[in-house]
Amino acid sequence: MDIHQNAALTPRGRARLVNRVLASGWSFRATARAFEVDPKTVRRWVARYRHEGLPGLRDRRSRPKRQPRRTPDRLNRQVVALRHRRWTLSRIGAFTGLSRATVGRILQRNGLNCLASLEPKEPPRRYEHESPGDLLHLDIKKLARFRQPGHRVTGIRTKDSMGAGWEFVHVAIDDRSQLAFTQIHSDEGKRSAIAHLKAAVDYYASLGITIRRVLTDNGPCYRSKSFANACQELGIRHRFTRPYTPRTNGKAERFIQTAMREWAYAFSYRNAEERAQHLPRWLHDYNWHRQHGSLDHKPPISVLGLTEDKLMRLHI
Q1: Domain locations in the chain?
Q2: What is the pTM of this model?
Q3: Would you tell me how many other CB atoms lie within 10 Å of the CB of residue 149?
Q4: Residue 284 pLDDT
């Protein structure tokens, strides 16, 4: 139950009010002055308590008990049935004799005000490639730069970093092992995307992983000829997600959510430079130490099956 922030009485306060009258013998007027309400209000809550007990002190719905002009249930069912036949609001109103607004309210109550609600939901398609390097997810997250902590941390809106600009976190995550590699660039252009791709390929190669395919959205930097040529030079097959379907690149999207929650917004950084300096440390923890539920609560590096000597050499 939602109580208005300026409400004079809550259910607990109403119980105290009733107790003053029935147990302590206060008059309605004296109780009203003590609780700063009208005597009629005191009389109403006392009457409801005598009739219903403590449940009578709870808020009730404001809907009237009798609604002579309420749309009959038969018409409600008919409107819903016609909507399932893909009829428009105007056509349903003309057929049933109801106004378009009434038809709209009925459909909204039933979650059918949009025709898209009638389409069956596509079942989730979960997949996982067999070997590390079979598919690399790429994506970009735009982050605001700042010179000092903003109102999110300080609560003071007068302190801001207007004009500080933006920075772009380029993300790569391996589909099988979920090993991630990120870099911060000043833009999301094709040159930055290519530089991040080449750096990611070198990083995964240092772990013994050869990248064979990449999956990206349809952003201009990934659709450019320069990026296509870079993939061809690296011997990588480039795939695109379905338009307007971010879940196709869901692992990159999920990694970005985790990064924002555990890195970007997890601490009160003094400025954007300090936040950027913390990214490699967080990424190392993500790849080498953080447990992943989808990996049987093991870190991503465990999927590679590296020997102890190689693990010690790579773990810096």
Answers
A1: 11-57, 73-115, 136-314
A2: 0.63
A3: 15
A4: 93
Residue type, 209: I
Report pLDDT digits (tens) over 84-135: 999 999 999 999 999 999 999 999 999 998 888 888 776 666 666 778 999 9
Asked if residue 222 lies in contact with residue 240, where contact means CB atoms within 8 angstroms, the answer is: yes
Burial environment of residue 136 by CB neighbours within 10 A (0 to 12, 13 to 18, 19 or more):
buried
Question: Model confidence over 217-247: pLDDT tens digits?
Answer: 999 999 999 999 999 999 999 999 988 887 7
Where does 136-314 sit in CATH, by number?
3.30.420.10
For every residue of the chain, which 3-state class applies, written as one string? Answer: CCCCCCCCCCHHHHHHHHHHHHCCCCCHHHHHHHHCCCHHHHHHHHHHHHHHCHHHHCCCCCCCCCCCCCCCHHHHHHHHHHHCCCCCHHHHHHHHCCCHHHHHHHHHHCCCCCHHHHCCCCCCCCCCCCCCCCCEEEEEEEEECCCCCCHHHHCCCCCCCCCCCEEEEEEEEECCCCCEEEEEECCCCHHHHHHHHHHHHHHHHHCCCCCCEEEECCCHHHHCHHHHHHHHHCCCEEEECCCCCHHHHHHHHHHHHHHHHHHHCCCCCCCHHHHHHHHHHHHHHHHHCCCEHHHCCECHHHHHCCCHHHHHHHCC
Give dist(CA 19, CA 31) in Å, integer.
Answer: 10
What are the phi and psi torsion angles at 216 (to 5°)? Answer: -135, 170
